[in-house]
Amino acid sequence: MKVEAQEISLSIGGKKVLNRESICCLPGKMSALVGPSGCGKTTLLNCLGLLLPVDEGSIFIDGNNVTKFNAASRRKFWRDYAAFILQDYGIMDEETVAFNVTMESSVFGRIKGNRERLTQVLKQTGLQGREEELAGHLSGGEKQRLALARAIYKDAKILFVDEPTASLDVDNRKMVIDLFTEFASRGRTVIVSTHDQEMIEACDVLHEVGKNNAIIKQVSINNSV
Ligand SMILES: Nc1ncnc2c1ncn2[C@@H]1O[C@H](COP(=O)(O)OP(=O)(O)OP(=O)(O)O)[C@@H](O)[C@H]1O
Questions:
Q1: Measuring from atom 26 of ligand 1, which residue has the nearest CA?
Q2: What's the CA-to-centroid distance between 43 and ligand 1, angstroms?
Q3: pTM as predicted
Q4: 194 and which of 3, 135, 199, 208 could share a cystine (Cβ 3.0–4.6 Å)?
Q5: Residue of the nearest CA to atom 17 in ligand 1?
Q6: What is the distance in A from the centroid of ligand 1 to the CA of 19?
Q7: Which of ligand 1's atoms lies nearest the C-alpha of 43?
Q8: Whose CA is nearest to atom 5 of ligand 1?
Q9: If we measure between CA atoms, which residue out of 171, 173, 129, 170 comes closest to residue 148?
Q10: Domains and CATH numbers, the chain
Q11: What is the pLDDT of residue 106?
Q12: Per-residue pLDDT at 111
């Protein structure tokens, strides 16, 4: 799905965080939001994912203006089309790893959801065999990979990602970048806020936030899915 912002502005606490920012994120591509700390990457990502309202400008999903979506429409968008990997990971510490991925409770100790797929995504994210562990017992990097496992399990059309490699070592960072690349290669839209040079190099489009909509690198639009 195509995710587009046209000249969006947002002030928070009297400070203009986004100033007429425009961006177009295409399906099948990884789009990076880059720039120095505090330039508004997370804020822009949250606006694109309809987690934050904008003061001015418009957001379009596949050409539909979703700027004024009400709460029910936003919830439907999040449920049916979006997956988020945000800085707090959105992990439920009191629940098991399996629940955090499938979002379905186990019944009498039996894991619900697609068991085969669960096993597959946990393997892909290096969390194999840890289905029954409490998520609260995982390290920061493991929680980050758990959030990734949930997003892959859901196989959402659009993946919104904030600093996905921040707590990861070299091997896990490569694994995460490869997973996003594979996700995009299947026609998914990946939008990632990042400082990570390796992640940036793997992206198809770099959008420098707060710099008059500067696109530093852009793949040929003709190649888009
Ligand atoms: N809820 C908030 N209340 C007050 N100020 C905020 C809030 N959210 C963001 N800001 C401010 O907006 C600016 C942009 O923040 P944002 O988190 O989007 O930047 P960023 O580019 O993602 O930074 P980083 O790379 O450090 O994560 C910052 O100056 C920040 O202090």
A1: 37
A2: 6
A3: 0.88
A4: 199
A5: 42
A6: 13
A7: 18
A8: 12
A9: 173
A10: 3-219 (3.40.50.300)
A11: 58
A12: 57
Residue among 147, 188, 191 at smallest CA distance from 167 = 147
Tokens representing 121 are 């995504």
β-pair partners for 15 = 12
pLDDT of residue 107: 55
The ranges of the chain with pLDDT < 70 are 105-113, 212-225
Q: What is the pLDDT of residue 217?
A: 57
pLDDT for residue 109: 55
Number of Cβ atoms within 10 Å of the Cβ of 129: 10
DSSP state string for 65-89: E-TT--HHHHHHHHHHHEEEE-TTT
pLDDT for 225 equals 34
Q: Which H/E stretch holds residue 191? A: strand 189-193
Going from the Cα of 24 to the center of ligand 1, the distance in angstroms, rounded, reads 21
The HSE-up count of residue 201 (CA atoms within 13 Å, CB side) is: 6
The dihedral of CA 185, 155, 131, 133: what is its sign? positive
Structure token pair of residue 156: 């959402």
3-class DSSP state for residue 179?
Answer: helix
Quote the tokens at residue 57. 């400008």
In the prediction, which pLDDT does 115 show?
Answer: 85
Q: Give CA–CA dist 185/28, Å, rounded.
A: 5
Residues in the chain: 225
The pLDDT tens digits for 135-169 are 999 998 899 899 999 999 998 999 999 988 877 78
In degrees, to the nearest 5, what angle opens at C-alpha 179 toward C-alphas 175 and 182?
140
pLDDT for 213 equals 54
